[in-house]
Design a protein that fits this description.
alpha+beta, 60s Ribosomal Protein L30, Chain: A, 5 helices, binds magnesium ion
Amino acid sequence: MTLRIGIGYDLHRLDEQGTCMILGGVRIPHPRGFIAHSDGDVLVHAIIDALLGAAGLGNIGQRFPDSDPNLKGADSMVLLERTKRLLQSAGFGVINIDSVIIAEQPKLTPHVEAMRQRIAETLDIERNRISIKPKTNEGVGAEGREEAVSAQSVVLLEER
Ligand code: MG
């Protein structure tokens, strides 16, 4: 069995004018929302980039470009579903995903199980293969000042 590792990172700005906060496909009640071309789901964007990177299939900007009007306001779970099909066609399966979300507010731990469930269902893998760890940034940097939320992800794929 050949193993392939991938890394992904994403950040989106937060604002009172932002549409809403969606992370891991779960809508999070919060007065500030993401400013983004899509729904701004940084966790799913980081996971997609890690999956594409591990498979040698480019990156999210190439596969789902900002310039595509069909992707304006796009549901990132649809992009994740499309990424899954790209991986399947190329003969890859997901062994596990580990990820970090950096957000000062709100508290995300109560939403982690719902995020794992949505991502697991979309990727057709068991929930215990997906890890999501919310962190604050101790009040420093863009995330700490609540100007942005970022996410990092690593994935391991098997080549079938
Ligand atoms: Mg993004």
